[in-house]
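INFO batch 0412 | record 1 of 1 | parsing
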Amino acid sequence: MSKIRVISREEVPSLYSVIVNEQLHHLGVLKDFKKHDVIKNFIPENCTLSMAWVHLGQNEILKTHVHSVSSLILICNGEVRLVGDHNQLLHEGDALLIPPTCYHGLIGAGENGFWGLSIQFEMRGLYENPDEPLTKFLGDDEKIIDTSCCNLSRLFQVNAEYLNDFSENPLFKLFISPNKFSQSLNFSFLKYFQVWSDNFQKIVLARELFCDHPEYKDMTRDHLNDEWGHNNSLKKDHKLSKNRWDPILEATASWFIWKMGVFNENEKIVLVHLVIEASATVFYEKIPKEVWASIQSNHGELHRHLDVEHDKVGLNMLEGLKPAEYLRLNQVQQEGWQMLNQCFQRMHELILADMDQQS
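INFO prediction complete | emitting tokens
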């Protein structure tokens, strides 16, 4: 080459599947750099380095397998869940080092799955010769997904991580310094929190409305009774005549209402109790008592005690499920926390905009 060239990812030929032991195995998308003539000629002939773009869409699975050579995967965009001998959710910027003989599989996560770079340093690329891949897949009669990542304990462990992340939501930073407890800040916060409170009432009502399973009916009705009317009490306390409508705040809050009509009962337990009610235990600790005292409301104190019990409701119903069911609950859990964080982050942005207008 005598001049600089840019090779787009789309220009590299794609491999979508491979046959191993007369079985067809789905790879997602694999683009080996050496399948592009310009890149192949650019890499020194005596170099054994091999690189390939790899991609899995959301919930797309690369079945559990093992390599005969070491492999390095750089997560370039999105998220992917590693399963097998080690189980972890990987994010953009993570480097996954896989020694030979270690069993592993990948599941595309997040909204769009992931794109990564698969790199090998010896022999050749894993699928450089599709007729003789350096890979052995587990048979259909063997475990595809290690159950150590698909159980109730793992669901709780991941939820604790999400809860810790939620505690760092920028909304709470507005209330760190005591001199921030101004009436204008409280007024602005309550105005947007009322939107969430009103939507939460619709969430528990929709859940009760769409529940016709006798094993879950008492639980959903009791939860509705415990929560009913708290939004109206709060509205009377702060005496706001009308909420400010915001498309992002409304969309993220009402997303949970929609899911009450399409999720099954176990998925709703995860969304309502492991996500919403668990987040409330952090929320009512992070929002200072002075905020509620400024409008002479007992809303904060009421929920500080009530939500500690509500985050445990129905969790016994999640025991003894199949690995595939836990995998689905992991997805519900992830989506719920992403939407909730976005909702409260939007409150933060709107409050800052209000404060800027007043300054």
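INFO post-check: The beta strands are 15-20, 23-32, 50-56, 61-67, 71-84, 88-91, 95-98, 104-120, 135-137.
INFO record closed
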